[in-house]
Design goal:
Blueprint (H helix, E strand, L loop, with lengths): L1 H20 E5 L2 E6 L5 E5 L4 E5 L4 E5 L9 E3 L6 E5 L4 E5 L5 E6 H4 L5 E6 L5 E5 L4 E5 L5 E4 L3 H5 L7 E5 L2 E6 L3 E6 L4 E6 L3 H7 L9 E5 L2 E5 L5
Antiparallel strand pairs: 1-19, 2-3, 3-4, 4-5, 6-7, 7-8, 8-9, 10-11, 11-12, 12-13, 14-15, 15-16, 16-17, 18-19
Length: about 230
């Protein structure tokens, strides 16, 4: 009996230590991202976008079933989150409370090819990648076309299949997980390539979920927030 009590006591202590170290945010998570403020955003299997704020342990949810499946989210600017629905070619813009502030019907305004990726831009506009014509387009705040790169195959001499587009600081990154990251300036000029094996590549793909005092990770479709430093 004494051994059983000791075992249960040790189990309780172990779970308490785990609870201090790891916080389970949600189950049935499809994808996630973290912003520069430490907030975590995740898309669930019910096609909802959720925001978890660790400091106050608050959840906020956004769901718009009219536009189909969420293809990607960009939380580079926490005040202007971009939610992209590739199937319907729609970009939604949400504020810090996940309230919709604007939307852009891409197909109605751009019919040359097929937009497969979008990203927030520093001028409250939108970056887009045309997978058919293999080019990057930058839109301004009023969604007017500012410029495009032209066919990137002629620039890169590579056939690419990018899965992410993101602006960071003064550069734009087009990520192909099988090749690496292609780096452009904010005028669409090609600068260099980062192989997928480099630490710099990881920092671009996951810029905020490996911070100094926390980490975020997905395990068995369950999302966790780890409070201890990631070393």
């Amino acid at each position: 009996m004494k051994n059983i009590i000791l075992f249960l006591f040790a189990l309780v202590l172990g779970n308490a230590a785990l609870a201090q170290d790891e916080i389970k945010i949600a189950e049935d998570v499809l994808s996630y991202k973290a912003d520069r403020l430490g907030n975590v955003y995740y898309v669930d299997f019910k096609n909802g976008l959720n925001k978890y704020e660790p400091t106050i342990k608050r959840y906020t949810r956004y769901a718009d079933m009219r536009n189909g499946k969420i293809s990607s989210i960009d939380v580079t600017n926490p005040l202007r989150i971009v939610v992209f629905y590739e199937g319907q070619s729609i970009a939604k813009f949400l504020d810090i409370n996940l309230t919709e502030i604007n939307s852009f019907d891409i197909r109605s305004n751009y019919s040359e090819g097929w937009i497969s990726l979008t990203a927030s831009s520093n001028n409250n506009g939108l970056w887009m990648y045309d997978n058919v014509n293999r080019k990057i387009i930058k839109l301004g705040e009023q969604f007017n076309t500012q410029f495009s790169t032209g066919d990137l195959y002629l620039v890169l001499s590579k056939k690419i299949n990018p899965s992410m587009l993101v602006e960071n600081a003064d550069e734009l990154f087009l990520c192909d997980t099988s090749i690496g990251v292609f780096v452009f300036d904010l005028f669409g000029g090609y600068k260099r390539m980062l192989p997928s094996t480099t630490e710099e590549y990881i920092k671009i793909v996951q810029p905020y979920d490996r911070a100094k005092n926390y980490s975020v990770f997905l395990r068995n479709r369950t999302l966790y927030y780890k409070l201890s430093p990631n070393k």
